[in-house]
Structure formats: structure tokens, C-alpha cells
């Protein structure tokens, strides 16, 4: 029987990295449904940006291999079983989270073309077209680049050297579980799809957390793994919504209103634990100060940049000012987390709010120091850079994560009343 | 095809620990051939002794399971492929190391009955009968006990907990290889069969050393692994020869001569690197002082107890006194070795003699601290305790390893001129 497997494997042209359209973050699908309803024809451009320029992706990764992987992603379509899972499952306790009309559209989707150029030691990889289609390239594009870079490093290693590499990485992940398992009332989810070491590795890490953390591990943002391992799919919404809404704004007043319009649209579709505010796109402080009262009624807030303690304290003060009880509110931390930071934040806030953690890169790609630094995670993103021909802007609570043309950044800062910000190193 | 494997596995009554008569140390087979030639009908008793009485084997290991494993060993006979390997292979550069008459005997061998009793928290496990048959129980009996104890500890662990346990152990073994790989001219062999964590684990450790140490790893004492992995089988002779020869001695003069008679018999069969003296059975110093001159012409010496540096220095002095050049002599260290000790001894002696290492328990069973101490190796031996009704005696260079009835120990000390000895902790 090994013969059959071996012969079957002979026939592979490539070992595909992304093998399913739902090997993506749950919130991409939620946002996609929202975008398809509210902005089905908006033209956008997504672009891959390697913030860690010291990692020379174009020297490490063969262009032909990269094209083969991206071409393979374009052959994918939703399988019957995947469709059944999305239609039949409950998400956040709700049936039919995805409407029949969205599902029909999704079942017929193939991802649109990509544009790939080599510029120096980096790749320029962009996607243009209708927002609901283009946006679904983000996660597979990142996963392909991340894993090809891993493979480039692993290629020259011996069999036992490889086994021990993974032994070390497994030990490290398990030690993290052991360090976290005794935090009372911990709630933690895997948010590590986009910068994972590889698909199989993410799948391993998630299963290790299921065994190691038990009830404290509430699920994964990866839909395929959630489906295969019978876990909760986790996620709400991301910066791309306010960024595109803002780029589409006709004038400064519309710009100032755009981030709230995003959430007004969102509120029409979602309730409960899906009503999570992501306030930092144009500065958390101003966003909350100018927010309409109905937003204070939402379930919680996601703190994704800047000083995480300050971000949570700002939210708590804001809820108190608006007459809400913070103890009933959820605070989800999701920026550069690892064991120490999770432990510290849990200690500071577990008694004051409902704390939860979206643990990303340092869960699914902590290979720091294991092959020198050739496998260390790096800061690769794939962002909406333009909508209907206008550049998007992100300010964030950390200027190191800001993006957009200089004059537009200046204008956004004025409109959103963002003053001086402290630069913080982007961990991953 | 997974179905067939699964269904095939359904049919196992047990998962056998020892699956081959050559899953044993090479020197047992060499000694067996010698014994079959010189003492084919000598009646001996071998007995299992747990020197680490804190490990309550009879509480950890179910008697029924132990019997099943031992019964399974008794069903084994030499396979055609194993016989072919023993007949056709070169060992230490020599063809037909095993004579046709020995091979014919071995092909027809089944291991003799065993006697098992529970005494308190320990098992009393003994084997009685003709020396060449009984002696082959030693390694399988130890391997069965060691691995059943491992299984008892592993039984309650989760799947990922298990995977991480082995990940940690693999990392540890690999780190040992990394620490040793740069020692110039290192020669090291696996001697870890008897106290291995499990067969599969020993097999993994050996393969990891092949990749990690390259030329420095010269082979394994385990014949089955040597055969399967196409490695050199390593080993010469052990204490059981002088112990039984000594027990058979009619008077004090014969006793004093017995250890040399062993080597005289050995010399008739073996040359070159198989002429290795094991001098410590009744004290190294006296053994060498009283040795006949022809012994100084042998290839080397194995230092297996006491202060290893002192043992090697004694040998070097002895060779010099007998007009031999120590730089042409081999010194094999084989007692309680681990990375630091190997590095230290290599540093002290590599320029002065041909150093070699027989690395045992801490290569194939270093699980110290990985499941508390429930998997830590312990000092289990299986020794010839009587021959033709007379107790055997071992003095060793470490009184903690001595054995035999008190009055006989006293007599041996007198005959071999052994004075005060320093007690050293038995590592494993």
C-alpha cells in the first residue's frame, strides 16, 4: 500500500500550499458577505508589503514556484463539503450566518488574476478588481509567501535535523500551553493563519492547544481547520473595511463619518459577540471620543496596535463615560502576543472586563533562533492600498504600522484629530 | 489502505517488545559462540537484579503483561534473513565470524523457560540451564522490563503530550550529537540496547547519530539495528565469562588463573579489534599486574567501572612497563557516559591512545526529568549468579557494582589481592 501512495505522490506537479478556499480567516468571509451586500462592484487594489525588508523574498523564493502556487490557488473552488459546513454550521451560536445568496456567489467564485513583478530583492504582488473577489486573495497570498520562504530554508536540512527542528518547535509551543493553562478563566483563539510557518504546522499548533489548554482554547480563525477539527471559527472584522470606506469618502465630513458607517452597516447584519469594535484604524482615542452612543452598546473592542494596556484603559474609561459596565464588555487583544504579554494582560484585566486573546504569529510561527534566524517570522502584510483609484490610508495607534501617501496621511490626521503618536517596534 | 493496516493491527494480541533473536548485543553472540565451543553443557543461572530498588517494578508492571512478553520471546527463532546476515556479513573486517556449526545450532535455538515470582515490589526473574542458551536471555529480559516500565508511565499521557515528550527527548539526543560532532577524531558506538527506553527509540537514536555524527559514529552493539540500518555491529566480551570461569575453578590457584583462561580461549578465536581486555571483574590493578605477557600484545582495554581516568592511566602505565606503545593501543570507555564525560575523557586521552566510547543508557534512555522522574533510567542488570551450583562473584573497580555471597567476596578479594576500593555512585 505504500507503493500506491508513493506512485500517487509521483504525480504531483507541486505540493500545493493552499488547497481550499476556506483555508482563510473567518472574518474575511464575514466581511466578504458584508462587502458583497454593500459594495459589490467597488474596484480595489490589494498589495503585498514586506515590512521586514531585510528578508529578501525574491532571492529566497523562486519566481516560477511562486507563480505555480498562486496559479494553483486560482484553480480552487468551494467544495461541496465546505459549502455544507458553511451553510449548515452555527457560527457564534447563529444558524445561516452566511445567506443563501452569498453562498451561491461563493460557490461560483474563482479568485481573480494577480500581477507579479520582481523589484530588487522583493516581489511586487498586487490584485485588482471587484472588492469581494480581490479581498479573498489576502490570506492565501500571505500563506503562500510565508510557506515558500519556510521551504526555502528547510530544503537543505537533513532528515533528522528536520525532525529535531520540529521537535524543538513543538516543545516550544507545548511549553507555551503549559505556561498558560493555569491562568484562571483564560479565553484564547488562534489568529495565526496569515503568518503561519506552514499549513500543517498551524494545524498541529491548533490541535496541541486543544489538548493543552482545554476549555481555555475557544477556537481558530482558520475556517478549514475549524471544519476539519470540529472547532469554533473565530473572528469579526478588520481594518480593510474602514480603510476602503474612508477612501471612498467624497469630502472631509464623509471621511470623518466613514469608520462609523462601517459599523452601522455591520450592525445590520450581526449581533452579540460579532459586534466587536476595531477602533485603531485612525487612532483609538479620537474614534471613541467621537463615536455615536449606539456604539457603546456593542459587545466589545479589539485592541490591535499601540500600547495595549493604554488601549484597554481608554476603552474602559469610554464605556464608563457612556454609562456602560465594563465588566460586561469584551476586550480582545490581538497584537504581537506571546506568553508573557498574555499573562500580563490577563492579570491586569481579567477582573475588570471579559478578556480574550487572538494569538497570531508567535503561536503558529515561532521558529525564532531554530535555524539561525532563517525561519524567524517577519512582518508581511497584504492590504487594500486603493479603492476606486484613490489611495487608502491607515494611521493605527502605532505609526510604524501606518500606510498611505504622505499628504493623505496628513489630511487623515487632521480630520481624525490624531496628534503625536509613539512609534513602537512591530513585533510580527 | 489504512483500513487494511488497522484491521491487521486489530489482530495483535500484544505489541511485542522483542521481535528478533538478534535484537541483542553483538558481544552476546560472540561470547555465545565461544561458550558453545568451550562450555556447551555448563549449567548456569542468570538472574535479574534491580539495583534501583526505589523503582517498584512489580507495582508498575502487570505480571500478566510481563509473562506475555517473555512468552513471546520464547516463540522467536532466527529468521532466514537474519541467518544470512550473520553468515554473509563481515564483522570487524572478518568473513565467517560465526562458524557454520554455531549458526546451525543458533538456527535451531528457542530460548529456554524462565521463572518469574513477585517478591514485594520487585520481580524475581531467573533463567536456568545450559550456559549458551541461558545467556541469550540477558538482553531481551532487560529490554522487556525496561520497555514495560516505559509503557506503564506513558499509558496515561495525551496524544500531544506524548508527541512533545518525544520531541523533548529527540532535541536532547540531537543536542548531544551537536555537542560531540566537533571533537576531532571521535569514535563512538551505541551500547544502549540493554537499558533503552524502547526499541523504536534506540533505532531513532542510532539513526540520529549516523546523521549527526557522521564518521565519528562507528556502529551499534545491537545486531538487529546494525542489520536493518547497514551499520557495523560492535562489541567484544563481558564480565560473564570471567565470572562463570571463576565459579567453575576448583581451588584458589585455578581461581586466580580463571580470568586469564577466559582470554586465552578468546584469543584462539579472535584477533585484531576483538582482542579487547575487560580487566575490572576482580580489580583492574591486580589483573594487569599479574597478567601474562601475551596479554600486553592485545589491541586494547575496556574501562567499565571505577575512576575511568585512573583505569586508563593504569592501562597506559602497564603497556609502557611491558614495552608496548600506548599510542597503538585502544582504550574503550563504557561506564555511565554522557556528553561531558566523553568530552573530558576524549580531551585527556585522544593524543595518548586510540580512544573509543561505548555509549549506553544516556544515549538510548535519557528521559531524565521529562515525565518527572517516572521515565528516568535505572540500574537493572541480568547476571550469571551461579554456575554448576556455585555462586558467581564480581568485585569490579566499584564496590557498588560488586555481587556475590559475602564469604566468597572475601575469598576473591584475598585471591586477587584487592584492597580498599572507593565506592562510586552507579550512574545507570
Written overview of the protein:
- Two copies of one chain form a homodimer.
- Chain A is an alpha/beta fold.
- Chain A folds into two domains: 13-155, nicotinate phosphoribosyltransferase, CATH 3.20.140; 159-364, nicotinate phosphoribosyltransferase (Alpha-Beta Barrel).
- In chain A, 46% of the residues lie in helices and 15% in strands.
- Chain A is built from 19 helices and 14 strands.
- Chain A has helices spanning 2-10, 26-38, 57-60, 63-75, 80-88, 100-107, 131-134, 138-154, 159-180, 199-213, 223-229, 240-248, 252-269, 284-289, 293-296, 308-321, 339-349, 361-364, 406-415; strands at 43-50, 90-91, 94-95, 115-119, 122-130, 188-190, 217-220, 276-277, 300-303, 330-333, 354-359, 370-373, 380-387, 390-391.
- In chain A, the strands form three sheets. The first copy, chain A, has a six-stranded parallel β-sheet with strand order 7-6-11-10-9-8.
- In chain A, strand 2 (90-91) and strand 3 (94-95) form a beta hairpin.
- In chain A, helix 4 (63-75) crosses helix 8 (138-154).
- The mean pLDDT of chain A is 95.
- Chains A, B: This is Nicotinate phosphoribosyltransferase.
- Chains A, B: The modification Phosphohistidine is found at residue 239.
Q: Using the alpha-carbon principal axes, give the shape of chain A.
A: globular
Distance between the termini of chain A: 43 Å
- The total beta strand count of chain A reads 14
Write out the strand line-up for the largest beta sheet of chain A, numbering strands in chain order. 7-6-11-10-9-8
Note poorly predicted spans of chain A: none
Helical content band of chain A: 40-55%
Main sheet characteristics of chain A: 6 strands, parallel
Radius of gyration of chain A: 21 Å
What CATH architecture of the largest domain in chain A would you give? Answer: Alpha-Beta Barrel
Structural class of chain A: alpha/beta
Oligomer: homodimer
Number of domains of chain A: 2
* Number of contiguous helices of chain A: 19
Largest interface: A-B, 19 and 19 residues
CATH class of the largest domain in chain A: Alpha Beta
CATH topology call of the largest domain in chain A = nicotinate phosphoribosyltransferase
Query: Which homologous superfamily in CATH is the superfamily of the largest domain in chain A?
Result: nicotinate phosphoribosyltransferase
Amino acid at each position: 500500500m505504500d507503493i500506491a501512495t508513493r506512485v500517487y505522490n509521483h504525480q504531483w506537479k507541486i505540493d500545493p500550499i493552499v488547497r481550499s478556499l476556506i483555508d482563510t480567516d473567518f472574518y474575511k468571509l464575514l466581511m466578504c458577505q458584508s462587502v458583497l451586500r454593500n459594495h459589490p462592484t467597488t474596484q480595489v487594489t490589494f498589495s503585498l508589503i514586506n515590512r521586514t525588508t531585510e528578508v529578501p523574498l525574491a532571492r529566497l523564493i523562486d519566481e516560477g514556484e511562486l507563480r505555480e502556487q498562486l496559479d494553483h490557488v486560482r484553480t480552487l473552488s468551494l467544495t461541496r463539503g465546505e459549502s455544507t459546513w458553511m451553510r449548515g454550521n452555527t457560527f457564534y451560536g447563529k444558524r445561516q450566518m452566511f445567506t443563501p445568496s452569498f453562498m451561491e456567489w461563493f460557490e461560483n467564485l474563482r479568485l481573480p488574476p494577480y500581477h507579479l513583478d520582481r523589484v530588487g530583492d522583493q516581489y511586487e504582488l498586487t490584485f485588482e478588481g471587484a472588492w469581494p473577489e480581490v479581498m479573498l486573495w489576502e490570506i492565501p497570498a500571505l500563506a503562500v509567501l510565508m510557506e515558500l520562504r519556510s521551504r526555502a530554508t528547510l530544503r537543505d536540512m537533513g532528515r533528522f535535523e528536520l525532525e529535531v527542528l520540529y521537535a524543538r518547535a513543538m516543545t516550544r509551543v507545548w511549553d507555551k500551553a503549559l505556561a498558560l493553562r493555569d491562568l484562571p478563566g483564560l479565553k484564547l483563539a488562534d489568529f495565526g493563519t496569515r503568518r503561519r510557518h506552514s499549513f500543517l504546522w498551524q494545524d498541529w499548533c491548533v490541535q496541541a492547544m486543544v489538548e493543552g489548554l482545554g476549555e481555555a482554547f475557544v477556537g481558530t480563525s482558520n475556517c478549514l481547520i475549524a471544519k476539519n477539527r470540529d472547532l469554533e471559527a473565530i473572528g469579526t472584522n478588520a481594518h480593510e473595511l474602514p480603510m476602503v470606506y474612508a477612501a471612498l469618502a467624497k469630502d472631509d465630513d464623509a471621511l470623518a463619518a466613514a469608520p462609523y458607517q462601517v459599523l452601522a452597516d455591520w450592525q445590520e447584519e450581526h449581533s452579540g459577540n460579532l459586534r466587536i469594535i476595531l477602533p485603531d484604524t485612525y487612532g483609538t482615542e479620537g474614534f471613541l471620543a467621537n463615536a455615536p452612543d449606539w456604539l457603546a452598546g456593542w459587545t466589545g473592542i479589539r485592541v490591535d496596535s499601540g500600547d495595549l494596556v493604554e488601549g484597554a484603559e481608554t476603552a474602559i474609561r469610554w464605556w464608563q463615560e457612556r454609562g456602560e459596565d465594563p465588566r460586561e464588555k469584551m476586550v480582545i487583544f490581538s497584537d504581537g502576543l506571546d506568553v508573557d504579554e498574555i499573562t500580563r494582560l490577563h492579570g491586569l484585566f481579567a477582573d475588570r472586563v471579559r478578556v480574550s486573546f487572538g494569538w497570531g504569529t508567535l503561536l503558529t510561527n515561532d521558529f525564532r533562533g531554530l535555524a539561525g534566524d532563517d525561519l524567524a517570522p517577519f512582518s508581511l502584510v497584504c492590504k487594500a492600498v486603493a479603492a476606486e483609484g484613490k489611495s487608502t490610508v491607515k494611521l493605527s495607534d502605532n505609526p510604524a504600522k501606518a500606510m498611505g501617501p504622505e499628504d493623505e496621511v496628513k489630511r487623515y490626521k487632521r480630520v481624525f484629530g490624531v496628534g503625536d503618536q509613539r512609534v513602537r517596534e512591530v513585533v510580527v
